[in-house]
Amino acid sequence: MKRFVILFKVFAVSIIFFAVSCTSDEQKESSKKDTTKTEDDAELAENVSYQIPSPEELFIIIKQHKLPYKENLLNSTETSYTTTIAKEINLGIYVADLSYSSVFNMNQNTLKYFQAIYKLSENLGISSVVSGAFLDRLKNNLNNPDSMSFISNGSYYSIIQDLDNAGKGKTIAVVATGGWVEGLYILTNLVDKYSENNQTINKLASQKVIFNNLYSNLEKYSSDANVADVKKDMDEIKAIFDQLKAEKKDDGGSSKNKEGVIVLGNKEKFSFSEAQYNDLKLKIKEIRTKFIKQ
What we know:
Structural class: mainly alpha
Radius of gyration: 18 Å
Largest sheet: 2 strands, parallel
Strand content: under 5%
Number of helices: 12
Low-confidence stretches: 6-31, 37-50, 256-264
Helix content: 55-70%
Number of domains: 1
Strand order of the largest sheet: 1-2
Number of strands: 4
Mean pLDDT: 76
Order of helices and strands: EHHEHHHHHHHHHEEH
Shape: globular
């Protein structure tokens, strides 16, 4: 059975936000309990060996660069999906929407998207992946944004870990693709105009490394006709990223540690031309529209 690892060290960043933002002893004690639980989930997820992206890192970039929260960019939770592939893709999309809401402490929306994730998981026959315990913890911590962030982050680790344990690598590949596409859709719609000095766009170019991992995983399961269709959509994105050439070495991006596990960072720096960025933005919008209307 193939083993998976969350590519981004989301919890390290989340813990920093948590330490800065706690304002009362009561909040600290409550959040400490949830932190312990979530760190345990993270440790489980990091003991595996195939790299997949988490949408959370993109949204931390959004917040760091002072981009806004726009609810109208989120996928509606009222849509009814009937096919398995549509449910898997939109499970990933809802995970991204949950992460975006969580990073901005939009707790009611965080709860709403977790409920949508729980419902889709039940429809897919994987409700044990997103346990009712997570949902109860979210409901009980609506007034504690720090705990909400930890719990919602933990749900993604739990989804990947449990799907992996169940041998559902194909589902992981599709869910991860849905989440990645939604993350880029939101990010590219928050940047109005291209500028070669725009830090958000420059960070986005580094997604080439992340995308290559995502695409390789889809290729492994492309004997399935539905996955092959998703991969075909991603072929257009690959064509854009393949145009990007490494410019120089720096300390950012992804690299392998001595155990051979990819960690945050890629020592190659990439950048978009205006035409490449606009092409990516257009293709992501087209693919995302197709995904949510399946």
